[in-house]
């Protein structure tokens, strides 16, 4: 596992990440502990050589809802979103999420 996961549990932490995205792109990953698809995609995203901000649906549904509202991207799980300058520059869900796509969008 190359990814460095940071679990996000509050909307305040989410707001800080949006501020941080003005300096450097930020990756977020919505994950469900009870979904077998999400478990498989979690393994895929674990291969990203990147900092991944993890939103676990069972623990932080309010954070997921706030992210959907801020980005105007409908909630799905699993779902990866990269934010740059406070705006989404990449999003994918389910098996469309790849470590390489996340890495590429964090670099650009």
Describe the protein's architecture and organization.
The structure is a single chain. This protein has helices spanning 11-20, 36-45, 61-71, 99-107, and strands at 4-7, 26-31, 51-56, 79-84, 87-93. It starts with a strand and ends with a helix. The radius of gyration is 12 Å and the shape is globular. A five-stranded mixed sheet has the order 1-3-2-4-5, sandwiched between helices. The chain has a single domain, classed as Glutaredoxin (3-Layer(aba) Sandwich), CATH 3.40.30.10. With 108 residues, the protein is an alpha/beta fold. It contains four helices and five strands; from the N terminus they run βαβαβαββα. The model has no long low-confidence stretch (mean pLDDT 96).
Distance separating the two termini: 23 Å
Spatial order of strands in the largest sheet: 1-3-2-4-5
Total count of helical runs of at least 4 residues: 4
- What is the CATH topology classification name? Glutaredoxin
User: How would you sum up the global shape?
Assistant: globular
| Topology order in helix (H) and strand (E) letters | EHEHEHEEH
| Beta strands, count | 5
According to CATH, the homologous superfamily is: Glutaredoxin
Largest sheet: 5 strands, mixed
The overall number of domains is 1
Q: Tell me the fraction of residues in β-strands, as a range.
A: 25-35%
Helix content: 25-40%
Instruction: Supply the CATH architecture.
Output: 3-Layer(aba) Sandwich
């Amino acid at each position: 596992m190359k990814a460095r996961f940071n679990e996000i549990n509050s909307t305040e932490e989410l707001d800080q990440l949006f501020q941080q995205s003005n300096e450097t792109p930020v990756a977020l990953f919505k994950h469900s502990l009870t979904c077998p698809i999400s478990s498989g995609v979690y393994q895929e995203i674990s291969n990203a050589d990147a900092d991944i901000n993890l939103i676990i649906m069972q623990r932080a549904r309010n954070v997921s809802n706030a992210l959907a509202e801020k980005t105007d991207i409908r909630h799905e799980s699993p779902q990866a979103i990269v934010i740059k300058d406070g705006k989404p520059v990449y999003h994918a869900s389910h098996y469309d999420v790849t470590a390489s796509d996340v890495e590429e969008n964090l670099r650009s």
